[in-house]
Amino acid sequence: MARNYNWKTGCDVEATLSVIGGRWKPILVCHLLQGRKRFGELRRLTPNATERMITLQLRELEADGVLSRTVFAEVPPRVEYALTDFGRSLDPILAQMQAWGSAFKERMLAAEVPKP
Question: Under a CB-based contact definition with an 8 Å cutoff, are residues 79 and 54 in contact?
Fold first, then answer.
């Protein structure tokens, strides 16, 4: 399934965000960096996301070549998701985002503490 890309600015950051932008894609990729996961596992790991949203995000990540979907011919059917080599290349980017987010949260929490 091919996706349409409408990069208006020509900025490479925009291209990156078209792949991993949004609330759930980076979180799903972070979980998949730890190894293969089934859909139910991903759903449990992202309890605030709806099943439909997880499905849509996984489909887009698959279309962009970030993850692979393996369907096992079993009853009931079993589907596993895993990052491709291309998807694993997001590891340092997400690690930097995690470090920045941690520092940001720490800064904001320190600002909320009332001074005696």
Answer: no
* Among 42, 22, 23, 26, CA closest to 94: 26
Instruction: Answer for the pair 111, 103: CB distance below 8 angstroms, yes or no.
Output: no
Q: What percent of the chain has pLDDT over 90?
A: 70
Burial of 51 (0-12, 13-18, 19+ CB in 10 A): exposed
Per 3-state DSSP, the chain is made up of helix, strand and coil in percentages (nearest 5) of: 55, 10, 35
Q: What's the rounded Cα separation, in Å, for the pair 54 and 42?
A: 8
- Residue-wise pLDDT for 2-23, tens only, equals 566 666 777 888 888 888 988 9
Q: Which domains does the chain have, with CATH numbers?
A: 12-112 (1.10.10.10)
Q: Give the DSSP H/E element, type plus range, for residue 78.
A: strand 78-83
Q: How many CB atoms lie within 10 A of CB 53?
A: 14
